[in-house]
Amino acid sequence: MNAPSGATVGFLWKDYTFTEFSFPQSNNTTPFGINKADEIVGSYVDSALNSHGFILAHPLTMAKWRSVDDPNGIGTTVISGLNDMGQYVGFYTDAAGDTDGFLAQ
Q1: Residues of the domain holding 86
Q2: Strand partners, 8
Q3: Residue 2 domain-assigned?
Q4: Model confidence over 52-89: pLDDT tens digits?
């Protein structure tokens, strides 16, 4: 979703409440998954135009953000899904230009 500022932001619709969110200091936050605990994962773009994965816990109360980069793909990481056990999956581009997947917790 694009905010009035032109930034790409995520949103959560729960219990008839609409909540927008964006990773701090980013103007491009794209969510890709949510689990039963309302943890949200996705990617954001920093000011140097690098992509990083994120995990957002407690989006409706005390939002807690965590930036995630695979060590082999710093600046190219995307988290695309998660399960109810806190495991998440995603992908990154390595130094050779190949796209690699990962599973983490």
Answers
A1: 10-104
A2: 2, 28
A3: no
A4: 999 999 988 889 999 999 999 999 999 999 999 999 99
Residue with tokens 């690699």: 100
Distance CA 73, CA 1 (A): 26
Residue the block writes with tokens 């927008």: 20
Query: Would the pTM count as exceeding 0.85?
Result: yes
Domain presence at residue 76? yes
What DSSP line would sit under 4-68, residue for residue?
Answer: TTS-B-EEEEETTEEEEE--TT-SBEEEEEE-TT--EEEEEE-TTS-EEEEEEE-TTSS-EEEEE
Answer yes or no: is 46 within a domain: yes
Query: How many angstroms separate the Cα of 49 from the Cα of each of 7, 39, 52, 57, 60?
Result: 13, 25, 10, 24, 28
- Token pair in block for residue 73: 């793909």
